């Protein structure tokens, strides 16, 4: 096989892989892709530890099949459990945003003038703005249930595809042409980028949530301060914390606003504490996520801004993975 043919196949595989990523984001199939990659990575992380306890090939295949079923079942349970939590806690989410609006209205006398100027003039103004927003987005709100069901179906399909690919990996290798080999290499690089970014961000979000929960549920009550909807705030902190840097800013803003319900002093101390947590997350992103792909947090922010402009919220979610993948490909090609 000539080196020229291999180079052509590699270039074609890069183009096809780029088009595939664009299609996934454009067709709103990112949940499917992420679910499949997560199942694939979990199976491959756990399979070697399980298969070494079996002597023959058939028993190892059976063990891998059972492990795949277990992973898919566990992931399905997590998805269903999350949906059940938000369904049962949906009123809490609504109350949270209603509480934030009421807090801002009550805090007019203590907030700086430049902030007050940005708020509606009264509760009637706030209510009117809410009604206008609901009227403007009525069609979108009617489709939320349908889109949620479709997304759940896509996630389940993605998990099944990831499981099938995991089982296919142990099949005998047949002869593959240069393009097929190059495409497999692109998939491996993308899957590796997913593993390094996602699992690192889960660690960061979990640590951030533990620290925030310690502040909300332990530190503040010791001083006689009990914020409303603490459990909801902690859940929101973990979920939005899965977005690098930006998620931390979202949760911090919500917590500071809710802290205003107690006093401006509590809001101030919450802001100071959360600034420290934000700086810690920035450091962790530089050390953990950035260390995984040899990138700094500002590089990830630029990638997220660009992807958000192109694809909206799915672009923000996919940006760190896509950036890590592109940087890995360029480094392997000797261009970086």
Describe the structure.
- This protein is mostly helical.
- The protein has one domain.
- Helices cover 83% and strands 0% of the residues.
- The protein contains 14 helices and no strands.
- It is globular, with a radius of gyration of 24 Å.
- The two termini are 27 Å apart.
Q: Provide the number of structural domains.
A: 1
What is the 3D shape?
Answer: globular
Q: What is the helix/strand order?
A: HHHHHHHHHHHHHH
Residues in helix, %: over 70%
Number of helices: 14
> What's the end-to-end separation, in Å?
27 Å
Biggest sheet statistics: none
What value does the average pLDDT take? 75
| Structure summary, number of beta strands | 0
Spatial extent as radius of gyration: 24 Å
Low-confidence parts lasting 5 or more residues at pLDDT below 50? none
| Share in β-strands | under 5%
Structural class: mainly alpha
